[in-house]
Prior knowledge:
The complex is a heterodimer of chains A (about 170) and B (about 190).
Chain A: H1 3-28, H2 32-49, H3 59-81, E1 95-97, H4 104-115, H5 118-128, H6 133-140, H7 144-163
Chain B: H1 3-11, E1 19-21, H2 23-36, H3 40-65, H4 71-97, H5 105-143, H6 148-187
Amino acid sequence: MTESEQNNIFGKWLQQHKGQIFKVVRAYAATTMDQDDLFQEIMIQVWHSIPAFRKESLVNTWVYRIALNTAIKWVGKEQKYAKSRESLDTVQAVLQEAKVPLDERLSWLYEEIHKFDEIDRSITLLLLDGFSYKEMAAMLGITESNVGVKINRIKKQLIARSKQLNPYGI
Amino acid sequence: MEFDELQKIWDSQNQRPMYMINEDALHNRIHTKKAKASHITNASEWLLIGVNAGAGGLLLGLTVSKVGSTVFMYLLAGWMLITALAVLVSRIRRLQRENRFDRSLVGELDHAIAMTTYQVRLSQLMRWNNLPIALLVIAGLLEGGKPLWFAFALVLFFILVNFASGWEHRFYQSRKLELETLQRKLQQG
């Protein structure tokens, strides 16, 4: 595959799947600087993965898997090197937050997702984005029954937290 | 709220973009990182092979050409060449194992753990390798009539090298531990 073909595919995937990638970025990185950093990491991994894509899965699933896997590994790395990373003052930011304000209930939901550990965050995103247990099991490499147990626990926690009083009055 | 309501809140974001992308900046960053990308393991393997083969070869050449060289210098040159060969074999075996991991999250974690395990072993091996090299260097210099203070300074140098190797080794160990913790979280219900 030539670099030009790789760039074309990358541009197409970016346009079609940026929504999914944004969700992963928002769920794993809290500050603007971190979101920019994680987005770039995911993009680099997606770019590198293009020659390895064998069309055995949907592009959607492939990109999501790369985004989640990069984010999970990034969390540990970021905590360790947060202080040594370049400041956004010295580099050009890739991501800019859209001007449209988000629903405050959605911000609350992201905050709740942030409280889960790295693995449960992945499962929550996959669940909310409508992946089946079978697809999740294949993407994560665990059994469907294990996925089921985790989802059951996550749903209970989210429902319980939504019933507690909070600043958004939900 | 029930889960259906949470789902509706989640789906509401699909109609509007959360961020704007500066595509030129993204393109530049990817190409810069791609140019910089030299894998740590790859680089450290080539460094070890190059340094050991180069130093071992040079030492052997100098020792052979010099009349009255000590046996320790021959041993040191041989040891360094063997180390370079061992790292080369180890690298070939690592590359052959590269494609046996599946594309799931567990598969990726298994791959990352295998890579870190390899780095832990390599750094441990290189740490222990300092010992015979230090002994042979010091023995060779003393045999060649160098003063005792020089040998003492070398001992200090090798102690510092050992500390640096230990730091590198612990870095890989903690990375491995983090990945294993993630793997356990994924497999537990």
